[in-house]
């Protein structure tokens, strides 16, 4: 992506948080009355310093991880598996709440301008999540292009609002307008100030997004990513500080029926076109800010699946090169959270800060270890920046955990603990299955001769068409004059002519069992393997050569990452070429003795059975391997 596109696409989460971060801080301070509101400027200044420190820290992360350095990768590489999982837990919680909070705040902006829709706020939010789901299932790149205009519109609207507000304040000599009398409902103390600080710090969500997406930039990727991050931090500080300033000078207080930004726009513009533009831009960017989570949540989940900490189905991309399963899971989780909290931003905010700053803390601590080990040019300066970011993030994390524990932070802490428990159990299960499936030379005697009759097959290593919708015709199987009847008319054994196809994903004990079963039938055999990329194809060829290359192999390369469609198309094309043959398709299938683990394994065999059932003269046989 170009920087002008990357800035709105990757910064929307952070920039849109200005719509609810300052208001969340003020909503806590107003509980202590006028005395509490007096702390808004010092707390905001502290948050601005925190934004600057975290932004500088992530510039070091981008330099150290030019191929993308999210919290999970950085913490895992430098601190170990458990801290990495804790960082991932914080990120996953953050992304789910990003969707829920952004949608809730966006709906609040709509209902502030159109109060008649307030009773339908939950329904509007759920509909927005469904729309985001549909857009992202069509491909993240397309959804990102939709996203740029609302972000720029929001930035323009906020800068204009801040400029008008400061201009009015300048006409009064920067004397604050007295706000209505406020009765204190809580005493002003350190805990209330810390709660306000933790609530306001939610305006920092999304800062990590750019460091996650470094490979998406045009070359030089890391340099363009650092420039974009700098612009994002500058804009975030300007919008946050400017919003707090004009709220302070205008005497506006948080209200349950109208957002602070809506009150500011009403005060400065009345109900004219600029008010409509400001509210529309705010609603649009908030409703679409969740797109950053739709980009990053499936990516982090795929990394967990790659490392065997999550079900492997989340590691697969769909036909549109999007992690469809992760996108669906995020939509369901965010929708449940949104409905459970009745779509109220104030109820969701206490859950937010824990996940965000847990990931920040572990990422920056990991970078400290990274620079200490590497000790390259300027390592001391980089270590200092990341150490400062780690300490400040830890302070906010502890503050949020303590002060907001009873308000909902305990839910985030329980979610992190549950996530650690589930992911470690999944990893333990996959390790057990891998040990059971692993080939061992002392227990597997490799055949020393051809173990089944051969037929004419395509040259080994020849790739199929790159488009699964147009499979390469298996011409090597075609014989002159070999045309039989397509009807299934065989009624005696002598009329049936067999050809066996063995579909192998990897050479393990389950695959070897399927190969042995096919060879034992003493019928012509062809092994088929679908590779989703060049690296996987090379890996399988290496395994095949090690085994001894005792059967003919046909490779189908599917860069679209589809597996079922290329196999079905190839088998159907083969049947058209040789309608006289009865094709027996043999599939290895891992069967779990404990059914609760079945969801962690591929359902390819079952899906292929359903897909092949309509084809004539095709028999599907599964060879179970019990674990």
Give an overview of the whole structure.
The protein is of the alpha/beta class and 627 residues long. Helix content is 62%, strand content 6%. The protein has helices at 3-16, 21-29, 33-37, 40-64, 71-79, 81-113, 121-137, 140-171, 190-200, 209-212, 221-250, 260-269, 273-306, 324-340, 345-374, 379-403, 405-437, 509-520, 534-547, 564-577, 604-612; strands at 497-503, 525-531, 553-557, 581-591, 618-626. It has a five-stranded parallel sheet, sandwiched between helices. Helix 21 (604-612) links the parallel strand 4 and strand 5. The chain starts with a helix and ends with a strand. Mean pLDDT is 84; it is low at 457-486.
Keywords:
about 625 residues, alpha/beta, 5-stranded parallel beta sheet, 5 strands, elongated
Major sheet strand order: 3-2-1-4-5
Number of helices: 21
Strand content: 5-15%
Oligomer: single chain
Radius of gyration, in angstroms, nearest whole number: 30 Å
Shape: elongated
Mean pLDDT: 84
Which residue ranges are poorly predicted, with pLDDT under 50 across at least 5 consecutive positions? 457-486
> What composes the largest sheet?
5 strands, parallel
| Order of helix and strand elements from N to C terminus | HHHHHHHHHHHHHHHHHEHEHEHEHE
Number of beta strands: 5
**Relative helix content:** 55-70%
Question: What is the structural class?
Answer: alpha/beta
Terminal CA distance reads: 46 Å
């Amino acid at each position: 992506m170009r920087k002008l596109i990357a800035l709105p696409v990757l910064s929307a989460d952070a920039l849109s948080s200005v719509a609810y971060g300052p208001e969340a801080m003020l909503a806590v301070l107003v509980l202590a009355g006028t005395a509490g509101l007096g702390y808004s400027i010092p707390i905001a200044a502290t948050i601005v310093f925190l934004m600057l420190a975290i932004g500088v820290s992530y510039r070091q992360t981008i330099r150290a991880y030019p191929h993308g350095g999210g919290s999970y990768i950085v913490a895992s590489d430098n601190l170990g598996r458990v801290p990495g999982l804790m960082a991932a837990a914080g990120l996953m919680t953050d992304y789910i709440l990003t969707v829920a909070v952004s949608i809730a705040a966006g709906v609040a902006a709509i209902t502030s301008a159109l109060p008649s829709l307030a009773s339908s706020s939950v329904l509007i939010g759920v509909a927005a999540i469904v729309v985001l789901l549909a857009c992202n299932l069509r491909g993240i790149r397309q959804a990102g292009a939709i996203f740029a205009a609302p972000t720029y519109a929001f930035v323009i609207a906020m800068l204009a609002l801040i400029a008008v507000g400061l201009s009015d304040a300048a006409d009064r000599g920067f004397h604050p307008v007295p706000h209505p009398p406020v009765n204190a409902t809580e005493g002003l103390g350190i805990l209330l100030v810390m709660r306000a600080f933790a609530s306001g710090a939610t305006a920092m969500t999304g800062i990590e997004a750019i460091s996650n997406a470094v490979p998406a930039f045009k070359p030089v990727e890391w340099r363009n990513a650092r420039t974009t991050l700098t612009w994002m931090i500058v804009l975030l500080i300007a919008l946050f500080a400017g919003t707090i300033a004009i709220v302070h000078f205008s005497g506006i207080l948080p209200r349950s029926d109208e957002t602070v930004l809506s009150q500011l726009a009403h005060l400065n513009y009345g109900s004219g076109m600029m008010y409509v533009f400001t509210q529309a831009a705010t609603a649009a960017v908030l409703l679409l800010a969740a797109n950053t989570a739709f980009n990053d949540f499936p990516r982090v989940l795929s990394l967990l699946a790659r490392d065997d900490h999550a079900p492997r189905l989340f590691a697969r991309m769909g036909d549109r090169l999007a992690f469809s399963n992760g996108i669906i899971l995020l939509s369901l989780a965010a929708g449940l959270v949104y409905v459970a909290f009745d779509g109220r931003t104030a109820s969701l905010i206490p859950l937010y800060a824990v996940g965000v700053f847990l990931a920040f803390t572990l990422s920056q601590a990991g970078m400290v270890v990274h620079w200490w080990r590497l000790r390259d040019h300027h390592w001391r300066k980089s270590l200092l920046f990341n150490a400062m970011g780690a300490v400040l993030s830890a302070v906010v994390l502890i503050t949020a955990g303590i002060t907001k524990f009873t308000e909902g932070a305990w839910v985030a802490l329980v979610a992190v603990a549950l996530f650690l428990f589930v992911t470690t159990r999944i990893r333990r299960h996959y390790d057990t299955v891998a040990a059971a499936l692993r080939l061992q030379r002392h227990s597997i005697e490799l055949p020393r001769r051809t173990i089944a009759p051969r037929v004419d097959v395509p040259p080994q290593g020849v790739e199929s068409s790159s488009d699964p919708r147009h499979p390469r015709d298996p011409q090597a199987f075609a014989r002159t004059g070999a045309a039989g009847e397509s009807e299934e008319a065989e009624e005696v054994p002598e009329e049936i002519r067999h050809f066996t196809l063995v579909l192998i994903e990897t050479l393990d004990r389950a695959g070897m069992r399927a190969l042995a079963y096919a060879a034992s039938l003493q019928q012509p055999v062809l092994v088929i393997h679908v590779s989703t990329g060049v690296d996987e194809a090379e890996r399988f060829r290496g395994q095949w050569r090690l085994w001894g290359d005792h059967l003919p192999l046909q490779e189908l390369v599917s860069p679209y990452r589809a597996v079922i469609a290329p196999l079905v198309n190839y088998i159907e094309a083969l049947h058209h070429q040789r309608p006289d043959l009865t094709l027996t398709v043999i599939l290895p299938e891992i069967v779990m003795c404990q059914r609760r683990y079945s969801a962690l394994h591929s359902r390819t065999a079952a899906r292929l059975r359903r897909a092949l059932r309509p084809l004539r003269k095709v028999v599907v046989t599964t060879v179970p391997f019990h674990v």
